[in-house]
Amino acid sequence: MCIRDSLSTVDFLQYVLKSMKEVETVISYETPYLPADVDYNEDRLRVLDKHFQKMMDKGELLSANYCLSRGGKIFANTALGKLSYREDANWRPLS
After folding, report:
1. By the 8 A CB rule, do 65 and 79 touch?
2. What is the pTM of this model?
3. Would you place residue 24 in the very low, low, confident or very high pLDDT band (cuts 50, 70, 90)?
4. Helix, coil or strand: residue 75
């Protein structure tokens, strides 16, 4: 059993935020469909992640988010990068 199964979405996200040791992260949310369900090459998602990571490494982006669908079927929903623009390492979201 995964910890996600025993928590509400809000509780799970708070758990993720509290357990993170670094400011940058990658979060892939559950979607109703898989890339294969809509004939999408899953390797292209890794290319997209790498593209955004390069832009973040260059300082062009602070973070990125994408949600992809085909034929009205959502198959990818991912967020990458810093959780805040703040430099303060002790920053935590308000609860």
Report:
1. yes
2. 0.62
3. low
4. strand
